[in-house]
Amino acid sequence: AAPHRSARAGAARRAASLEWDVVVVGGGSAGAVVASRLSADPSLRVLLLEAGGELEPNWMTRVPLVSALLQHSRIDWAFDTVPQEHSSRGLKRNVSQWPRGKVLGGSSVLNYMAWVRGAREDYERWRDEFGAEGWGYEDVLPFFRRAERCYFGQGASSAERELSPLRGADGALAIRMEQPTLREASKRFLRACAADERIGAVDDYNGETMLGSGHTQCNIDEGGRRQDTARTYLRRELRRGRPNLHVVTRAHAARVVFGRESGTGEPVAKGVEFIADALGPEAPLMAPLAAGGEVVLSSGAVGTPLILQRSGVGPADLLKSTGIDVVVANDNVGANLQDHIFTPLAADTNALSLHAGMINPATISDYLSEGSGPLASDFIEVTAFLSTGARPDLHGAPDIQLHFVPARGDTVYCKAMGFGEEWCDAMWRAQMGGVDSYNMLPTLLHPLSTGHVNVSSADPLAPPRIDPNYLSDEHGTDVRTLREGLRIVTGLIASEHFRDINVGLTMPFNYPQAFREEVGLPLRPGDEPTWLLPNATDEAFWEAYIRQVALTVYHPTSTCAIGAANGSSCALPDMSVRGVRGVRVADASAMPAITSGNTNAPCIMLGERAAELVAAALRAR
Q1: 313 assigned binding-site residue
Q2: Domain region containing 586
Q3: Blockwise average pLDDT, block size 10, the chain, 621 residues
Q4: 582's torsion region: left (phi>0), alpha (psi -120 to 50) or beta?
Q5: Which cofactor does it need (predicted)?
Q6: What global pTM score does this model have?
Q7: Which residues are catalytic?
């Protein structure tokens, strides 16, 4: 490893010895896009700092089915939240595990690859409710299209399918519009949803309308390989052809260094201080900005507010208590944290489901030769978006997403979700013993509960304090909305479409004894009526259930949100940080509010948009 280390030390020193037009901090879903687009102009010197390593050519990061194995690996920040007061009671230490990508490509390397833009209404709300002028649906549409290269596979319906003009056909990222093969349970899910008047079917949830059920569109190419931003926007041949783009990996950003504008005294970014692992924390380096240059923070909903706070931009009391000099006081830096949570409900089935045993010589051969078979499965094969009516303020955007996973629970799954031993044993014992199953996971798309991400000390390597404050909203709307989602799911499971493949409901019957007593479940495991949940109308039971098992879908957002120019948000509509010059945010932290669905596509759109805004500002210098 010595030459690698000396090469990295050399790369880090080079970053500190030149002046840069742009320093992008974080090479993840959005940051890789920003660096790629800006470095296309050979006159701009672009530096990308990434805390993780290069994305090594590793089958685990390519093969869609094994995504869960990447959690707790060396490319995962593996954050934990603080113990939760209102939720996560079935999780170890009441803590929610937050995997985040610590590698070039960021969380696009670890995620489950679902491509969901969000609802038209989400972006209209960004503009009209949050004052994010220029962020309506028509404004963001070209940036989604620029990223997409949508294709239909070899599925039966592909021949007559046409791509909506709202979609992109020649962008950087392959988007597989439908799964090549569906498990039997996934087919039943689509039939049950189509027949349910509250859900229905939709051809393309990223097209004209979002509501309905359909195949999960995902970042998987024609060869069945994951499409992350490192292997697309920052592929090696592109980097080799751009001497003006310098990428330094294993470089942990400590803070943005500010000077003062001579006339006005306004803080202006002078560069980024970073710690190179090859040189150690005792020898931090500074990557300097050229006059009028820009820092783009793309370190995610956790990393970006931490860097701002360490730079002196954040809540004054917090900064003072941790010994950080205040440059600009703003209570919104690190606040407004939102995240999607879902509540699993599982049924045992006689239909074949995905499981670890499917990784065998025959399926590996199919995968390598055709890019098909179970290894190319997205895991979340099908999905649905619906409005329960609980949130009229969303103007028709969905408030529940159903993730459908035709897979057995196993130790990997349990570990990835962070359930305690007795819960793992209770929920998935039969499946671990080889019983097939499927999971329906109603997901809360627009939580009213918000939390925060804050520094725990001035040390740039200290772990953050993350408190999503799940299910804490004052009127209990979040729990009620999830309860409505569970009601719909139990209806689907009990419908004629699943009846002949259902063997029994695993959850919530087999739950640990203490929980059964707490909620008064009268039945012993095995005595339950097969198709109807006991106490189906018992709200206390369902609330306890939700507060036990609801957990993150890995979509934190809005900790440095864009808002009205005349307000107090962390960032302005042009993505620049309020109160300082030369710093922008371009990642999930910038979202004024969380979107309706998986957040990777909006992050990439934000990266595309940021690149255009920064390029225009640099041209105008």
Answers
A1: no
A2: 1-138+234-339+451-469+557-621
A3: 77 96 98 98 98 90 87 92 92 92 96 97 97 98 98 66 92 94 94 97 96 97 95 94 97 98 94 96 96 98 99 98 98 98 87 81 86 87 96 94 86 76 71 80 97 98 98 96 92 90 67 64 49 55 86 96 97 98 99 98 99 97 88
A4: left
A5: FAD
A6: 0.95
A7: 555
